[in-house]
Amino acid sequence: MGKCCCPNRSAITDGTFSGLRNLIRLLPTGTAFTYLFLGPLFSNFGRCHPFNKLLTGVLVGVCGWSCFISTFTDSYVGLDGRTHFGIATRKGLWPSRRESHNVDLAVYRLRFRDFVHALFVMLVFAVVVFLDPNTVGCFSLTSNRSFLKLMPPLVGMVSSVVFFFFPTSRNGIGYFSTSSSKSREISLSTAQGV
Fold first, then answer.
1. Which residues of 18-45 are buried (b: 16+ CB within 10 A; e: fewer)?
2. How many angstroms separate the CA atoms of 141 and 79, rounded?
3. Which residues contact 68 (CB under 8 A, 6 or more apart)?
4. Are 151 and 127 in contact (CB under 8 A)?
């Protein structure tokens, strides 16, 4: 009677923070924050004039492009012990510095799952845009409210399933590389053949 049938709180907390870390890695927080901060200003708080529509459209485009490109960034720890960032290419990581010749950058090459992640990160960002009442008001997207209400849980559910089957361990700009995450990616790509 003295034993508690509740799970260990430490395990629950660790699992929650691990899930939150993975979620944060999916959508670049700096880009999302920039959009959420500047969106109301650029859209004149939803009461757009033609110039406000142009500014808001450019903001959505630039932030969407930033989300897309960030899915192809990764980091590695060089022989100097410092973290270096680069962009994944077909041949490997295009480094930000030249002293990476002793690190095997081919491990970081583009894979099919990178493009899957880029597509779904763009969809998640689109949901953020469509949930912003200022942008919706600016572009008069209020005519189909049922679609706007259905889109977030639908995209969230589909994205969760896709991210489960196509996991990534890319450590983009702002997310520092760990040796365990890269070894995990190598074992995943070997097991999945992707």
1. eeeeeeebbbbeebbeebeeebbebbbe
2. 52
3. 118, 121, 122
4. yes
The 10s digit of each residue's pLDDT in 107-139 is 888 988 889 888 988 998 988 888 888 888 888
pLDDT tens for each residue of 143-185: 667 777 788 888 888 888 888 887 777 877 666 555 544 443 4
> What residue has token string 């590389």?
177
Query: How would you class 128 by CB atoms within 10 Å of its CB: exposed for 0-12, middle for 13-18, buried for 19 or more?
Result: buried
Return d(Cα 100, Cα 92) in angstroms, integer.
12
Cβ atoms within 10 Å, residue 132: 19
Q: Which two tokens stand for residue 79?
A: 């022989």
CA neighbor of 34 nearest in space, from 59, 3, 5 = 59
